[in-house]
Amino acid sequence: MNDGLFDQFKEWYEKRHDYARAWKARTGGQVVATMCTYSPEELLIAAGMLPVRVLGAHEPQNVTEPHIFGMFCPFCRDSLAQGLLGRYDYAEGVTLTQSCIQYRQTYSSWRQNVPTVKWDYYVAMPNDVQSPHSRKAHIAEVQRFRVFLQTLTGKEITDDMLRESLAVCDENRRLLRQLFDYRKETNPQVTGVEALYASITAQFIDKREHNEQLKKVLAALPTRNLDRPQGARFMTIGSENDDVSFMAMVESVGATIVIDDQCSGTRYFWNASKPGDDVVRAIAERYCDRPACPTKDYPAHTRFDHVLNLAKEYNVQAAIFLQQKFCDPHEGDYPDLKRHLEANGIPTLFLEFDITNPIGPFRIRIEAMLETLSEEELF
């Protein structure tokens, strides 16, 4: 059943470049290509800009090899390809907040070789976010980014402007949390594909517009009846994933994806900022406090218990690791996180993605996992 409730999110996702061009023509504001969800988009919004997260196209390409190694993950290569192919020619700026070293190379190659880039900024966020010294450093870095944007635009970005943009972003985070809460229910009235459309579009649609659409969806959900069996309740974990075709395949064979730990989903919006008089500090510390990417999850592995708690809270029966091929950060913590989940009764399945991977073999492995789960229920 498709009642059209999430069609706007789907259209935004499929026509995201058209949306950005229309927004730019309508508002006269700058569009900024953002790399990594640690980018402090509150500052860009306060400056009257539209932050647009760079996503891949999930298609083979042959333009990145002169710029980055072929053994970099497919997301790195696909992201760079979108810039080199002119898909983001409407974006004046490009910014990256420190994540993995491979994606930093993607950013460096983009800023040097995409001819439409007029300015770039690298946010040197410390990886050891658990250190109080790193937090101080990141507050200072966010302030430096603010000064850069003020110089770039010739306009002051006041504390009140930052508070307003932070409030808009925090509202978006709270609304997405409310949407995801519906996935806790038996026979959830929000599918994994629909949740992905909602969360990923928040990363490139005007937040105010996105908030209004979320409110419409939330108002309709209490009386929604999808009339579909939930099947097995799956969780997805790992690298960036906005592969809608894969998610749809999983949910077509007797399962529902009820929660995720990915930067295309919950890691992006899970926590709001904490109240405080210093708005720059509130913005900076919110990113330090968010559910950690493996690149920022040390010396203590905070994400292991966070992922386990999500699995329990959403009554997950099995977890699927979606691994971008050659993704060093997620490869590094996969063995320990797998053991942690399985020791607590959550079986796992590991799938390694590349752009050219056909879905067929993945379908076979998903169906085998479902068969294993059904057999275990008999004993």
Commentary on this structure:
The structure is a single chain. It is globular, with a radius of gyration of 20 Å. The protein contains 15 helices and 8 strands. It has 379 residues and is of the alpha/beta class. It has a 4-stranded parallel beta sheet with strand order 2-1-3-4, sandwiched between helices. Strands 6-5-7-8 form a 4-stranded parallel beta sheet, sandwiched between helices. The mean pLDDT is 95. The chain has helices at 7-14, 16-27, 41-46, 74-84, 101-113, 132-153, 159-181, 192-201, 207-220, 244-250, 266-269, 279-289, 302-313, 328-343, 359-377, and strands at 31-35, 50-53, 93-97, 119-123, 232-238, 255-261, 318-324, 348-353.
Keywords:
four-stranded parallel sheet; alpha/beta; Benzoyl-CoA reductase, bzd-type, subunit N; 379 residues
* Portion in helices: 40-55%
From the spread of the alpha carbons, the general shape counts as: globular
Please compute the radius of gyration using only Cα atoms.
20 Å
Oligomeric grouping of the chains = single chain
Largest sheet: 4 strands, parallel
Structure summary, number of beta strands: 8
Q: What spatial order of strands do you see in the largest sheet? A: 2-1-3-4
Q: What is the average per-residue confidence, as pLDDT, rounded to a whole number?
A: 95
What class, by secondary structure content? alpha/beta
Secondary-structure element sequence? HHEHEHEHEHHHHEHEHHHEHEH
Tally of helical runs? 15
* Poorly predicted segments: none
EC number: 1.3.7.8
Protein name: Benzoyl-CoA reductase, bzd-type, subunit N
GO molecular function: benzoyl-CoA reductase activity
Organism: Aromatoleum anaerobium
